[in-house]
Amino acid sequence: MAATGRDAHVQAPSATADREIAIDRVIPAPRELVFAAFTEVRHLSRWWGPEGFTTTTQAFAFQVGGVWEFTMHGPDGTDYPEWITWTEITPPERIVLRHGESRDDPDAFTSVLTFTPDGVATRIEMVTVFPTRELRDVAVERYHAVEGGRQTLANLAAYVTETRGIGAGD
Predict the structure, then answer these.
(1) Interacting residues of 79 by C-beta distance below 8 A, sequence separation 6+
(2) Mind listing the pLDDT tens digit for each residue in 109-151?
């Protein structure tokens, strides 16, 4: 139901609300710096993933239609093949990506990342939409996707804070 009249400031729920996970965090660094940490593999490989995970990249091309193929190594020694392609890039404001185990993964999901200035900091919002509600529920209940997403953004914040000045010239 669309909001109208004096309640126009109230947003109607999105058509995908029952398939979404939304996570946000304020990172104490300028937007350009946070965006760079998200778009250069030398940075991504150092903070991507939940606590205890590491990443090994096999291929990386940050461009619309480009691919990041990598393996996430869990703290228990389990390897997870991962595949991401970028479908929209608007520096330093927005990234839209598709993420699964491989290019043909029928369970792949879409994430929209927005980078918004928040004073001298950056608010990053990550909204992930799964193909079905059931897949979202499995991600939340079995794989702890909400906590994992929060940990991933916390790792990003810690990395950016520790390595200020990671801009394009480094």
Answers:
(1) 71, 72, 73
(2) 999 999 999 999 999 999 999 999 999 999 999 989 999 999 9
Angle between helices 145-162 and 133-141 (to 10 degrees): 70
- Based on its alpha-carbon atoms, the radius of gyration of the chain, rounded to whole angstroms, reads 17
The residue ranges of DSSP E strands in 14-53, in sequence order, are: 20-27
The model scores a pTM over 0.90: no
72-84 pLDDT tens trace: 999 999 999 999 9
**CB contact at 8 A, 109 and 99:** yes
Question: Is 96 strand, coil or helix?
Answer: strand
List the beta bridge partners of residue 59: 69
Which of 99, 94, 138, 136 lies closest to 112, judged by CA? Answer: 94
